[in-house]
Amino acid sequence: MANVSDASVAISMKRGVGASMGVIKSVNKLDGTECDITHEAGQVLLLDFWATWCPPCQKPMAHNQEMLETHGATWGGKVRLIGLSIDQTAQKVKDHVEAKKWTDVEHYHVRNGKCVADKEFGVNGVPHVAIVDTTGKIVFVGHPASRKDLVQDFNDLLAGKAITGEGTTSAGGDEGEEGEEAFKKNIEADAVEGAVTKFKADAETHLLTESTKEAATGMPRAFCVLVHESRYDCKTKTLNNNMKNY
Fold first, then answer.
1. Domain count, the chain
2. What 3 state SS string does the chain have?
């Protein structure tokens, strides 16, 4: 008989559309001091998770700066565009944003060993943004390119209007198909171990070779991440699995 003490369950959660933004704790300012990020009633926030080494992050961050230069005076501090860097150090971010003159954006460093904002907001890759309305509720999660007119989004939210489209529903963001159905249609439990083993083997075969390293010299960084989740269905008493390759 199996010993039930050998079983363990890990429970995690992330802030998504419809949830409160809460308080983003223990971030570092670019001067190295620590603080919390809070929402104040009447404000609209863009939380932009990014990195200086991420090529796709550069254009959205430049756009954040442009929006503030053009519309900041009109917004009067009611729209806050916040960069949350996952770089190794705050100094790296400081040097980068000063060189780019992206200093109108509020910049913070979150990969400091204390802050868990990237986990709380389900950041699997960057850029990854969340939009928060005037009440502190998250109304969009996903890739910034999913929003065709952020200025209009911010103005609508300031006026008390809702925004719609991809990433604005509780099953939205850039996660694709969600809910228990996604888990039922995905990988069977007995295939998980084999899939993980194959992923590791393929990585070593195709990525960790001298020829690949030489060919990739000077290229932007790229990441391939295999994520496996299991959800227990209390009604059917079954464990459903979902596996995604980012």
1. 2
2. CCCHHHCCCCCCCCCCCCCECCCEEEEECCCCCEEEECCCCCCEEEEEEECCCCHHHHHHHHHHHHHHHHHHHHHCCCEEEEEEECCCCHHHHHHHHHHHCCCCCEEEECCCCCCCHHHHCCCCCCCEEEEECCCCEEEEEECHHHCCCHHHHHHHHHCCCCCCCCCCCCCCCCCCCCHHHHHHCCCCHHHHHHHHHHHHHHHHHHCCCHHHHHHCCCCCCCCCCEEEEEEEECCCCEEEEEEEEC
